[in-house]
Amino acid sequence: MLPLNQNQGASDTMGKITTVTGSSTLANIFFGIAAYYSMGSYYGWNQAQPLPPPSAASGASAMSSGAHPAIVIAILLACALVSSVPAWVIAYRSEKTAQPKSQPDGKDPRLIAIQSPNGGAVPMFKIVRGFAYPSSPALVQVLVQAGAPNNMRWFLQPEVDVTRYEWKVRCKFGAVNSLSGWVFRVCAVMPKTRITEGEIKNLPEDAIASEIITVSLDRNLSDETI
Questions:
Q1: Which of 51, 66, 97 is at the close of a domain?
Q2: N or C: which end of the chain has fewer CB within 10 A?
Q3: Omega before 104 within 30 of 0, i.e. cis
Q4: Which tops the pLDDT comparison, 220 or 53?
């Protein structure tokens, strides 16, 4: 099974967003310059000669004829906000529509993966973490393989806890009489029909599955809790 490139989809989306927000940055710079000159024109900044005091009769005509800076700033601010909309649209559409291509066997490791443990030693109770994208991680089921060499079984673990695209579950490796060094395998799957049996002989053939992680029991390690 191919390794997961976790950053590929995110980098493509960020590339699109960066392209669009580059123009937004220029629009914000233009906004600042235009606002400065608008206020300078209205209030007479940097003018060398003072205006004569207006008479009561001509007071209205002596007022600046320029647009009030608040109006100009409001218009420019609206333009700057509108210019950032495409970036949010791209991010939303990329998240909703980007679907990785599946491998011929239907088991695409880009859809589901185990982040920890990445092999090595584990206590009897270990928190296993992973993610599922763009599919819902609530559909993930985690199984641990154990048993005699001629009678290996996959044991269903508790329901996963979900946070956005990430999932975690407290897996059990062995029993109270299990010895350090015993080997177990872990796999996360998204089957078309949810697994209800406590143990099964083989993983569902129609399931989207992560790579299988091999770990070994170390009774000297402390159990982990969620």
A1: 97
A2: C
A3: no
A4: 220
Give the domain range for residue 63.
Answer: 8-97
| pTM higher than 0.85 | no
CA distances from 79 to 19, 31, 37, 73, 132 (A): 18, 9, 17, 10, 38
Task: Report the domain count for the chain.
Answer: 2
HSE-up of residue 55 (Cα within 13 Å, Cβ side): 2
Which residue type sits at 51? L
Given a contact cutoff of 8 angstroms between Cβ atoms, the answer to whether 112 and 130 are in contact is: yes
Task: Confirm if 175 and 155 have CB atoms less than 8 A apart.
Answer: no
* SS3 category, 85: helix
Contact 105, 24 (CB under 8 A): no
**Same domain? 93 vs 116:** no
> In this structure, how many other beta carbons lie within 10 angstroms of the beta carbon of residue 210?
26
